[in-house]
């Protein structure tokens, strides 16, 4: 993940460990998405039975909406008052 090093002079020191953990988690998501996107979806779906295909589609949609939720928070938008909340609730009704 191409980010600049965290500079503890730019934020309160008491949140440094939280930011490091968050940065590591985002790096893990980035790595996983890079691997997933390196294989054409049609090729991936051929290896799965219909139920697994549905689960992958549902998990992909839920993950995308969850990442958008986090993005909204970083932009100062309350995601609880955004339509993405309804999408996340709708997708959890199927699991």
UniProtKB/TrEMBL annotation:
Top-level division of the source organism's lineage: Eukaryota
The organism's taxonomic lineage, starting at the top: Eukaryota, Metazoa, Chordata, Craniata, Vertebrata
Complexes and interactors: Monomer and homodimer.
Chain's role: Plays a role in the recruitment of the exosome to pre-rRNA to mediate the 3'-5' end processing of the 5.8S rRNA.
Family (UniProt): Belongs to the C1D family.
Keyword check for Nucleus: yes
Keyword entries, A-Z: Cytoplasm, DNA-binding, Nucleus, RNA-binding, rRNA processing
Protein name: Nuclear nucleic acid-binding protein C1D
InterPro entries to which the protein is assigned, alphabetical: Exosome-assoc_fac/DNA_repair (IPR011082), Sas10/Utp3/C1D (IPR007146)
Major location category of this protein: cytoplasm
One Pfam assignment: Sas10_Utp3
Compartmental location: Cytoplasm; Nucleus, Nucleolus
């Amino acid at each position: 993940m191409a980010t600049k090093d965290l500079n503890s002079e730019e934020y309160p020191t008491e949140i440094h460990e939280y930011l490091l953990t968050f940065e590591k988690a985002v790096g893990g998501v980035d790595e996983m998405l890079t691997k997933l996107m390196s294989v054409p979806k049609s090729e991936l779906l051929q290896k799965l039975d219909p139920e697994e295909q549905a689960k992958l589609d549902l998990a992909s949609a839920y993950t995308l909406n969850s990442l958008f939720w986090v993005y909204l928070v970083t932009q100062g938008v309350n995601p609880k008052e955004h339509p993405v909340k309804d999408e996340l609730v709708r997708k959890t009704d199927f699991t």
